[in-house]
Amino acid sequence: MAKQSLKKTYHRLRIDPVKRNYLTQAIMISVYIAGTMAIIAIAPKALELVKPLKRIWKRSQNQQKYYISKKIKDLIKKDLLVIDKNGNVSITATGENFLAKETKKENINNKADWDGKWRVIIFDIKERERRKRDYFRIELQESGFIKLQNSVWISPFPNDDLIELLKQDLRLQSEIIYFEATKIPEELEKILSRTFFH
Fold first, then answer.
1. Dihedral, CA of residue 196, residue 163, residue 141 and residue 65, to nearest 10
2. 145-197 pLDDT tens trace
3. What are the recorded Gene Ontology BP terms (predicted)?
4. Which of 12, 30, 40, 51 is the most buried (most CB within 10 A)?
């Protein structure tokens, strides 16, 4: 995987974050280009790339730290990143392969490749679980969903495995409903098609 190609993706993320896995890509590209990076240096670099996330986290810097820290731990668990005893993070061979596949997906925005199904999420997560709710919303946005209403999100991308993992990880089973729809209001479909497909 050529670093020059990834650097182009890196700079493009600053202007127009990809619709799917953009925070994951920002973290992994930052680490890959650096070769190795102190774990405390990753969050500022990732946030610099994905400026739209700052709007989501405008309430609290602690939310930023919590979410990015959890995301890095998830990537380490998946063997995409590895951390040494000094707290320095580097990308694994598995991570390089994953990143190569993800960067190729950036160009797949052709409606002809779409299966015609809309993936819809409806959730009702109580205020006492606000931290989980905020985390869930950010995961939805990173995975290619956009918000129709506060608790209704939609995407054309298959996300069955992700949603099931989130439900288990956050212990939110009955609070989250996920289903596929082949027909939605015509005007809404036009707007969504313009949003998702270039």
1. -160
2. 889 988 999 998 877 777 887 887 788 899 999 999 999 999 999 888 888 87
3. DNA-templated transcription
4. 30
CATH architecture of 111-196: 2-Layer Sandwich (3.30)
Alpha helices in 16-129 (DSSP H): 22-34, 39-49, 52-56, 61-77, 93-105
Q: Which of 93, 134, 79, 100 lies closest to 21, judged by CA?
A: 100
Q: What are the sequence ranges of the domains in the chain?
A: 3-105, 111-196
Return d(Cα 170, Cα 97) in angstroms, integer: 28
Per-residue pLDDT of 78-89, as tens digits, reads 899 999 988 889
Q: Residue 112 class from Cβ within 10 Å (0-12 exposed, 13-18 middle, 19+ buried)?
A: exposed
